[in-house]
Amino acid sequence: MEPKPPPHPDLELRHLRCLVAIVDTGSFTDAAIELGVSQAAVSRTLRALETLLGIRLLHRTSRTVTPTTAGVQVLARARYVLAGAEELVREAATGHTRLRIGHAWSAMGRHTAEFQRRWHARHPDVELHLIRHNTPTGGLAEGLCDLAVVRTPVDVRRYDHALVGHETRYVAMAADDPWARRRTVGLDEIRERVLVVDRGTGSTTVDLWPEEARPAVRYIHDVDDWLAAIATGRRVGVTPHATVTQYRRDGIVYRRVRDAPPVPVHLIWRRHDPHPATHAAVALLGELYRERGRL
Question: What's the per-residue H, E or C state across 73-104?
Fold first, then answer.
């Protein structure tokens, strides 16, 4: 049996830092000063990187150091990898000093601005970021946020959650719709119209109506598409009050649905990795819903 060749050493960030330092400073001597090592160590590290990759990375003369054609490509990737590593360290270091709250459509509705103001006053050391991401978990499943505001059923197997409030449903219509002259609309009337529904993130489904008396439905995938479809005057939409405050558009009006059940509003978070500020966020948002009641 032929002996196995010795394994290649693993690529390390120090290899990439060495290459970048040599090119950026223009010499092995200056790179050694920048990296805080000896010139011999710089030479060894670069040689190890070239051996690992199996290519020559630099043209070296007594006066200049320039990347080879292959070196230019490796240098670009090295900068990208190093930037990513620095971002990872920064994210880990600041994870508890920043709170990211995701949402699919309307954040906290009419409570959004007041939530931001009170959060800053009460928790000045934890920077708040609101992130809109058009998925059922508002970006939580994708790792884009620490908490998410949802108005759709919660997957309790995957996420912990807290009910923070309820919102009344409204029907959205074109401004010249005959219903625009009224204060309220009933569910029985809405079933006679074509209903626009966001299948992925919307809080309204045809389950609001009996199976034998459901409206015709047109499915869309984003709040902007939802608004555009309604503005034509041929369709209507049903939505929580949060949409009313967050999406005021010319040509669109909202009227309360007088006999529809309210929409529960939850905050959800990862069960095994909660942000330290989770319960503070739950308490504040619940406080705002209690203070201002349901619209």
Answer: HHHHHHHHHHHHHHHHHHHHHHHHHEEEEEEC
